[in-house]
Amino acid sequence: MDIYSFSDQAIARLIVAFFLFIGIVGCLSIGRRFDKFFKLNSDTNGTIGAFLAVTGVFYGIIFGLVIISVLDTYDKVENLVQSEASSLRQVYSMTVLADPKNAHHLRDYGREYAQVVINKEWPAQRAGNNDPSQYLDGYKVLTKIRQEALALNQEGGNAGALAQNLNDAMDNLTTARDQRISQVGAEIPAKLWTALFVLTAVNMVLLWLIRIENIFLDVILNSAVALAIGVVFVVCFVFDHPFKGNTSIDSSAIESVYKYEMGG
């Protein structure tokens, strides 16, 4: 079962609970054992704290870059979908200027394209399926529209000018579509996830090594750090796949064109 089939709230609770569990258990068991084994005291706290400060800087930089990259990709994909919807609206609006016989076919193909994107391609995207065969139907419809534009161009005059404008709009539509499909498999590389988990483990272990006499205060501090780490992991995980999960980018922009512009 795909974890993205769960709600974002459930995923967030699971991730945060995991890090809280690790933080508290590590503090009370592993940390206390380290305390006895290494004979930790206030002097060692300064040395460990210095190491923690250095690793914490690298940790923060890497995590910051990952979050920026994830959110930037999400915004980029959202803009691509908006651009595709805008280009589709432009293509469809040009049909009112075409000869009635050509306009009829162009409008039908425009509606067909919107239906393919909404009903076939978006479910495939949400499933993370970037198999090219899942997106062939959309390209076939775009080919039909270009063929109609070619027929208009051969008529010359105003029809030829309309065909040129239509082709320009089709180029924009195809470009936005290509870029949208290329982002279906966008995700944080596995090696980067591994690096994040390793750095997380290093920083948490160093934190456990710092000796705090007050157990309650020790638990509170470790819990606060674990909570912060969990929240950051939630942000990375939820926005990692632009087309997956409850916060995924939906087809509402295309649906709006289909419903209000095309009368679908």
Class inferred from helices and paired strands: mainly alpha
What is the mean predicted local confidence, pLDDT? Answer: 86
Q: What's the story with the biggest beta sheet?
A: none
Q: What is the tally of beta strands?
A: 0
Elements, N to C (H/E): HHHHHHHH
Report the end-to-end length measured between terminal Cα atoms.
Answer: 34 Å
How many whole angstroms does the radius of gyration measure? 27 Å
Residue share in helix: over 70%
Number of helical regions: 8
- How much strand content do the residues show? under 5%
Regarding quaternary structure, what we see is single chain
**What characteristic shape results from the CA principal axes?**
rod-shaped
List low-confidence stretches.
Answer: none
As for the number of domains, it is 1
Short description:
This protein has helices spanning 8-38, 42-93, 100-126, 136-155, 157-182, 190-209, 215-240, 252-261. With 264 residues, it is mainly alpha-helical. Helix 1 (8-38) packs antiparallel against helix 7.
Commentary on this structure:
The chain has one domain. It is built from 8 helices and no strands. The protein has helices at 8-38, 42-93, 100-126, 136-155, 157-182, 190-209, 215-240, 252-261. With 264 residues, it is an all-alpha fold. It is 80% helix and 0% strand. The model has no long low-confidence stretch (mean pLDDT 86).
Which features does this protein show?
single chain; 264 residues; mainly alpha; 8 helices; 80% helix
